[in-house]
Amino acid sequence: MRLLVCVFLLGLLPGAAFAADNDCPVPINGGLKGEPGNNQDTPFHSLAVDPTNPNIVYVGTEANGIFKTTDGGQSWSRLRNGLKCTIAHTFYSQIFDIAVDPRNPQTLYASAINGPGPSSPTSYPSASGGVYKSTDGGTTWVQKNTGLASTYVTYVLPDSATPNKLYAVVGGLRATYPVYPGPFVNGGIYVSADGAETWAPLALPSGLETNIFIDAVLRGNDQRRIYASGQIHSGEAPKAYGLLQSTDGGATWSVSNPDGETVSGFDVFKGDPNIVYANVASGHRAYKSVDGGATWSATGPAIFFGVVRVHPTNSQVVYFTGGGGSIWKSTDGLGSVQQVYADTALASDQYVTDIEIAPSNGNVIWAAAKGYYLYRSGDGGATWSKFTGVRELVYGKSAIDFSNAPVTSLTPARFTGGTVSSFLRVHNPGNSAGTIQVQVRDDRGTVLGTFTREIAARSAPQFPMTQIESEASIAIPTRVGAFAQFDIRANFDGSAQHVAYDSTLGVLTNFSVCRSAATGASAVVVSATTAINVHSSKIPTIPSRITLGHYADNVLSGVTSDMGPRCAFRAQP
């Protein structure tokens, strides 16, 4: 039940008071969370693959919103607009699961958790959880909790047979905050007929409302077969129901789990809702049913750890997780299994929490592990790619330890505003890619945010100040005369410039003034240089790029080139 402990502890996070208005004024970076003694967050079951494009993937985080890739994991963007957060603006609700509407991939549903409890009043800690909906591919989100008695939502199941019909799976747990006047918050399974605008509870077997749900699926051509895995946390409820199912859209229910076992993970074949693979908590054993849970047979070795996923078109192909960050595969319905991947770099308390098979291409497999590590296979598990920079993107921090790296300060830099556009140009003259970390301070020394980027070898990319402010979640000072300072660290030797383009005057100015803070010597100040009419007069509204010229010569010497000064930085010795 390790997974359940992680879920429940969200209600115990410090500094989690809520105000009447818990809208987030600016995007935030949540702190490091997870199990005690561990600073690696868990994505839980929040990995989702677009039904038409296997390169579009969403992953929900434990405190930092949602991130998305549209190019198979080569780049990622953060999606947080509309998500609620705490009054201290320290974290967003945990995204336990994400569902993509099979009828319209631009429509998404996120299941959010922040301590069990109702959605109103907003002073309750649970007010930021529940159901979120996006109709623009995750760019913006709107909370949809009308009718839900609790906001501890673990799954939203879109009905592909009926437009706008959905099921929300809500867990029952003991309240974790004294402000809520009740010892236990019941859950349940709810239905919506209007695209999540309103919800109504389904009638469930007595006692089921005290269970939490770790897995849930909707199956069958008529979308009338609902399966859910009911469990309890720390003995808070008298009974764990295991695997439940309804064959009539939730009108009636039956218990379908193997006799005497608690189901901790399962999946149902999309082509036949009677074929079920279940992973039981005791002994990490797997069971299979071909008659909808009426009878079961134990199968496979006792190595199952939690997640089970069946191929969308072949009921004999099954993927599942083992211990130690391992992923396993069977091609004969678990008659035999083979390990197809193991991440030996994961810590002992890290593990793969989700596996998803692309609906449009059964050879594309995605997996997520604790620490926000992502894995992709394009050949049915034969080979895998690991994406390690996603966690750093989420936290706005670099995976590289810059704690002892020399600091080069570049000042002044203009914030966004008016007719002047600012740019940070970074030059990497080496033959290997490197990473630069730019800590942005205001003129009073207050740290406003951190911008991190990988710089390709022998390149000089240019980053608009608007991009830096957005990705580093910087609130621009409103007082007159405020300006920015860049404290630059890197794991390569290079240089940087700050330039500004005035669209009214048509002038490109190099404002770079360098102060070396690495050696403790007296500050070295280099005068700024103005370069006039560098841009084409045919396109006066488009900022120019300062050409390298002889930039690469003596790039670390601190002398000015034909295009003005550069601020040199060095890698950590």
Short description:
By secondary structure, the protein is mainly beta. Among the domains are: 201 residues, no CATH class; 162 residues, Sandwich (Hypothetical Protein Tm1070, Chain: A).
Number of helices: 3
Uncertain stretches of 5 or more adjacent residues: 1-20, 516-564
End-to-end separation: 45 Å
Instruction: Write down the Rg.
Output: 27 Å
Task: Work out the helicity level.
Answer: under 10%
Structural class: mainly beta
Share of residues in strands: 25-35%
User: What is the number of strand segments?
Assistant: 41
Based on CA inertia axes, which overall geometry fits? globular
Give the integer mean of the pLDDT values.
80
Profile the largest sheet. Answer: 6 strands, antiparallel
